[in-house]
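Justification of computing resources. Each target in the renewal requires a structure prediction run like the one illustrated here; the chain below, 212 residues long, is used simply to show the kind of job we budget for.
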Amino acid sequence: MIPRIVFTAIILGSACLVCSCSTTPGDAAHNGGHFEQAAELYEAGVKQGDALAAEKLGNLYYHRPGLPLDHQQAIYWYEKAISLGDISPICWIGEIYRDGTNNIPKDLSKARHWFERGAELGQHYSMYNLADLYASEGIQPSNDVQGLMWLESVLRLARKFTPQNEGTAYILRDPKSVRLRLESRMARTDIAQATRLASDWVTDFEQSHAKK
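Resulting structure tokens:
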């Protein structure tokens, strides 16, 4: 059975998971709109090694509602969460560098790094965003075969989830028209190659996780 890291599946204004069902000291303050108090409690949790507290602290600086936007702080706490074992923020860091908003300049090379890191772990939105980066020719030299491989791979994984899942529906809908943009530039042989590569990647991924 594929573990939890395979899919982050809720969309609330962002292309990655925005919240967690697990409770953490600080959640009550957050829910009550006391964001500074929530930040203090989350930071205390981080000092105790709580990865989820680090993720939620990063969210306060990245998602709304929360503290004043500070994407530099968001990345700091997201990296802390990742170092403690929570991979969810990988996609968000990629988004921050891809979009170049607030106090972090746009850097597609760093966005690619983070999306690739999440994609190799089977994180669906990292996979989809990586495919989109290829489709947008944000990765040079361009490689449409690689882009379509990641799109086909994430679609194959997403189809294993219930269609009622918001994340599944988002991926399968392909709202950014990644497939259309990629395939419009590809020969049939290239499309076939990407499909084979995706099949091999998904098989290897599932087999490696079935052993864990």
